[in-house]
Specification:
The chain is of the alpha+beta class and about 450 residues long. Helix content is about 40%, strand content about 20%. Helix 2 packs across helix 13, helix 4 crosses helix 13 and helix 11 packs across helix 13. The longest helix is centred in the first third of the chain and has 26 residues. Bound molecules: (2S)-amino(hydroxy)ethanoic acid and manganese (II) ion (2 copies).
Length: about 450
């Protein structure tokens, strides 16, 4: 009997000791290098967020300033509060989740992305980086890790409509942009109000250069390079500049049946020749530049009326701003010649230009080292897509982490990234943030 009592008390002591260790592990700050995200929780949140603006064919239409965008914003703000972030909405409508650091003299480290989508877009563009940033904050809170730097998780408004929210922080918004009409049909001005912005205080949103310690963004590649080369992590070296101009072609509307072919001022014919010429000019130059006519509207738009007017959207992108402007000037010159040939007239709106941005070399190395320490393969590559990071680069050093897009598809319901790749990217984001926190 006595031996049994001894065994029982030894087991009881072992159980108490085990319980104490468990409590201790969960309450003491975790050794940061061991910290990892919960990939499954990110996937669950992606799935939940994908319900806001869900399309029957898959993917989402959660365009900025839509009801779906508003609902998605409420959802992510709830997750940010659960992650023990102090959630505010700035005057332009960016959602900012803040957590104080141990050293209030240090400037904030920012992580984040966007949750608005293009019409009929996918479930991973922007949301992967946004929800991973929230997961990083959640994990730091759960494991009682406080950084030296203040941390801000930022969900920028209307990234797809021209990186509006991040542009407001990096460079301010002008009336021309505020009065422009967004995909939702609202002007950016009205849309900003709709999501809770306060236009009277817009000036407060802009942050001066040097006001942040750095910004890290995780994003899907939206191209096929990583998947094709079976690389886990992309270290982004730079983000392309993007020029937009609305082109108007004036012809003369007339009867499609009675107007001889040699007496027409056919705006649609000029437009067709213009689109072809844009493609020829852009592909005739060495490099990775791209040029697109993404939308076109013919008026009056009837079978039996020769289009008297066509408006279309021209977009040019490259890492080199000089090259973008040179292509734009050449396209305008050749459009005038098309007009002469067809008896139509071309005019171009003043172009909007989002500047290209190089990422910070130190951040590139830090991301590369972090990924390799996690046993992941890496590749340095440019971003052919625009991102909030290029706007935030106006006020501080930025770094971008890419994960593979399956078949390189994006801005489509078929956009997909694997859960394990998302988890890898989020762990690189977490560990890179911890490394950045060790810098002054
Ligand atoms: O258009 C872009 O490159 C980005 O997805 N907004
Ligand atoms: Mn994006
Ligand atoms: Mn996008």
């Amino acid at each position: 009997m006595a031996a049994l009592a001894v065994i029982e008390s030894a087991i009881l002591c072992a159980m108490i000791r085990f319980a104490f260790l468990v409590v201790l592990t969960l309450t003491l700050p975790a050794p940061p290098r061991d910290l990892r995200v919960q990939g499954q929780r990110i996937s669950q949140h992606l799935q939940a967020l994908s319900q806001f603006g869900k399309n029957p064919q898959g993917g989402v239409s959660r365009v900025a300033y839509s009801d779906a965008d508003l609902a998605g914003r409420q959802y992510v703000m709830g997750l940010m509060r659960e992650a023990q972030l102090e959630v505010t909405v700035d005057a332009v409508g960016n959602i900012v989740g803040s957590r104080a650091g141990n050293d209030p003299s240090l400037k904030p480290l920012l992580i984040g992305s966007h949750i608005d989508s293009v019409p009929e877009g996918g479930n991973y563009d922007g949301t992967t980086g946004s929800l991973s940033a929230i997961e990083v904050a959640q994990m730091l809170a759960e494991r009682h890790v406080t950084l030296r730097h203040p941390v801000q998780v930022v969900i920028f408004q209307n990234e797809e409509g021209g990186t509006v929210g991040s542009h407001a922080i990096g460079g301010g918004l002008d009336d021309k942009l505020l009065n422009s009409v967004s995909q939702s049909g609202k002007t950016i001005r009205d849309g900003t109000r709709f999501i809770g912005g306060d236009l009277a205080l817009l000036a407060q949103v802009q942050r001066p250069p040097g006001s942040i310690a750095g910004y890290l963004e995780l994003h899907i590649e939206q191209g096929g390079t990583l998947e094709k080369s079976k690389i886990n992590i992309g270290v982004v070296e730079g983000i392309v500049g993007i020029l937009h101009s609305e082109v108007t072609i004036e012809g003369f509307a007339n009867h499609a049946g009675t107007t001889p072919m040699d007496q027409r001022h056919d705006a649609m014919l000029s437009a067709a020749r213009f689109v072809e010429r844009v493609n020829q000019i852009v592909t005739s130059i060495d490099g990775r530049q791209v040029g697109t006519v993404g939308w076109l509207k013919a008026q009056p738009g009837a079978y039996n009326v020769i289009p008297g007017k066509v408006t279309l959207g021209l977009e040019l992108r490259d890492l080199d701003e000089i090259k973008i402007l040179a292509m734009f000037n050449r396209i305008r010159a050749e459009a005038a010649m098309i007009g002469q040939l067809n008896d139509t007239h071309f005019s171009f709106s003043d172009p909007t230009l989002i500047h290209p941005a190089l990422t910070d070399k130190r951040f590139q190395k830090l991301i590369d080292d972090t990924a390799k320490e996690l046993g992941l393969t890496t590749k340095v590559l440019p971003s052919g897509a625009g991102h909030d990071a290029q706007e935030i680069a106006e006020i501080g050093p930025v770094g971008m982490i890419f994960i593979p897009s399956i078949a390189g598809i994006s801005h489509s319901p078929k956009e997909f990234s694997r859960p394990e790749d998302i988890e890898n990217g989020a762990n690189v984001l977490l560990q890179a943030l911890l490394k950045l926190d060790e810098l002054p």
